[in-house]
Amino acid sequence: MKDSSLKSATQARVAVVTGGANGIGAAISSCLAADGITVAVADLDLDAAQALVLDIRKQGGNAFALPLDVSDAGSIKHAFDTVERAHARCDILVNNAGIAGVASFVECPLEIWERVQKVNVTGPMLCGQYAARLMARHGWGRIVNIGSISGVRAGTGRTAYGTSKAALIGLTRQMAIELAEQGITANCVAPGPIQTPLTHAHHSAETRESYRRTVPMRRYGTPREIAEMTAFLCSVHASYITGQVLAVDGGFLAAGILEV
Ligand code: NDP
């Protein structure tokens, strides 16, 4: 993947990684930058975005911090206007920014439901529209939506979150078929449990024990493991893959009973 021919093919490419400053997004930003892509680290957390940009530049990569709130249509427009003015292109979009919001089906408050759909579904749809228009100019593009195993399997307390990630899978397929003729692929990476600030805040001891029992590999994944799959899907090597959901989950979605 990192041979010199690929490096030269990707040298001029520009990627926008939403929520790119922390957790899984930070690993994706670093991985794409290591592949020679200029990365817009687009995040609410501008301090973390700037710190990551410095780190990427120290490693010899190209990156810049981009203020972005994916729950705000005006902020999305402003961010893509900035990318267009500075680089006149966007070749890769990783819709990674996402929030949880754990509540049972019966108790799930409307505010949590609406907030989660806005960040996890409406944000990726709007970012996808802006990015696809820029990608279409060059007849090449890669969109990767970071979904979740919770978009494929129901999980306790995942009414808002799981439904939003299921919708993101539908959105991925919609993007894939409508953008295919313009040379743009769209795929969804569905992570299993990954060690990040989000899971640190939201996974109880019971949730961790439940994953230890139900993930065949018996461990949480790392942000790097999600980033490697994402970088592959963004590369020239993934040219005939579109509309797919790729689980990176230690075997969770493949599993039935694990004890006899
Ligand atoms: P983190 O909360 O650790 O990092 C998310 C980043 O996105 C943070 O920098 C956060 O900023 C930023 N962000 C949050 N809301 C917005 C917004 N409205 N606009 C722009 N940026 C925003 O999350 P993870 O790395 O754990 O998760 C990343 C993605 O992976 C999410 O879509 C999540 O649903 C998905 N995922 C994660 C799993 C896991 O186990 N960690 C499992 C399955 C899927 P700030 O810190 O300021 O809020």
Describe this structure in words.
With 260 residues, the chain is of the alpha/beta class. Helix content is 48%, strand content 15%. The longest helix is centred in the middle third of the chain and has 29 residues, at 110-138. The protein is globular and about 55 Å long. Residues 18-19, 21-25, 43-45, 48, 68-71, 96-99, 119, 146, 148, 191, 193-194, 196-199 line the site of NADPH dihydro-nicotinamide-adenine-dinucleotide phosphate.
Keywords for this entry:
globular; 7 strands; alpha/beta; single chain; seven-stranded parallel beta sheet
Count of individual beta strands = 7
Associated small molecules = NADPH dihydro-nicotinamide-adenine-dinucleotide phosphate
- What is the approximate shape? globular
Beta-strand residue fraction: 5-15%
Rounded to an integer, what's the Rg over CA atoms?
18 Å
Residues in helices, as a percent range: 40-55%
Low-pLDDT segments, ≥5 res: 1-11
Gap between N and C termini: 41 Å
Which secondary-structure class do the elements indicate?
alpha/beta
Quaternary structure of the protein: single chain
* Count of alpha and pi helical runs: 9
Give the strand line-up of the largest sheet.
Answer: 3-2-1-4-5-6-7
- N-to-C order of helices and strands: HEHEHEHEHEHEHHHE
Largest sheet report: 7 strands, parallel
The residue-averaged pLDDT reads: 95
